[in-house]
Amino acid sequence: MNFGTTQTRWICFLSILLLTGNVAKVTAESSLSPGDRSGNVWTVEQVVASLKEGREPSVSFEEATYSSLLTEPLIVRGLLRFTPPSTLEKEVLEPYRERYLIEGDRVTFESERKHVKKTISLEAYPALRSFVEAFRATLTGDVVQLKNVYETTVDGTSRQWTLLLRPYDPAGKSMVDYLLLSGSEGRLTTIAIRAPDGDRSVMTLRRGPSK
Asked: When you count CB atoms within 10 A of the terminal residue's CB, does the N or C end of the chain come out lower?
């Protein structure tokens, strides 16, 4: 999986916006928090509803990319923003500056280091469009649309849950094996993306400004 391609970067960005800690081997396993006495297993409907309720307009992130093309993980930091109903933005601040923006069906990528500014239409990228629709569904609480695009598996309780997403569409499967979201109640803390070739990206979200 070449994380240098614009399309792959966009998939990582979109996955991030759904968004404890670094994942050496991504699994869908979750244990019950000692403080959670209810033992009530959560459903995908409860997870999506809580994410909609708990989402913030802006969060800081640290993202680590692991690839066979890299001798060591690539780590970047920046800010994520979501403006309802359909504007998504990822701004990389360190160690270089890049910006990814989705407004409706228009996708824009800007990079200072590459001296590039490119805009595409989602109509030309069906697989990317399906990811956009799915993530917007998650951010707006539309669990029906999310299930139309992904096979969903939830494990854990409100105190500690994971949501495993596997694309149904063959085009999506060719780029992403699965996505694993981790969180607590309405707070999304980590999202891991694994490609069919084993490359992966792990992002940790933090509340407050990026440092």
From this structure: C
pLDDT tens digits for range 78-109: 998 878 777 888 899 999 999 988 888 888 98
Query: Whose CA is closest to 121, among 104, 136, 106?
Result: 106
Superfamily for the 6-206 domain: Lipoprotein localisation LolA/LolB/LppX (2.50.20.10)
pTM given for the model: 0.74
Report the relative pairing of strands 116-121 and 150-157 from DSSP bridges.
unpaired
The pair phi, psi for residue 66, each rounded to 5°, is: -115, 120
Alpha helices for the chain (secondary structure H): 6-18, 44-54, 126-140, 143-149, 170-175
Beta strands 98-103 and 187-194 are: unpaired
Residue 35 has a CB neighbour count (10 Å cut-off) of 7
